[in-house]
Amino acid sequence: MADERVRLMDEQTAEVLTKAVGKMINEKILEMRLHLEARIIQLRNETVAARESLIHVRRDMAGLQAQIANLDARRPEVRMPGAR
Prior knowledge:
mainly alpha
């Protein structure tokens, strides 16, 4: 009878420990998932900011190219001595 009680206690203890460990694992998974979701949001925001920055750089570059073309068009043609 005592052996049976010990066995039941061991089974109950194992069940309680299994549930506790399972709960801890689930909490850790949730914590990691929330961290990863936050990181994904951060990376998406950084990607959007980088795209916007690239758009501005391209606009600036196009503007500079237009200015260069304008200056080239207004520059008098210089002939090298001896050139035809």
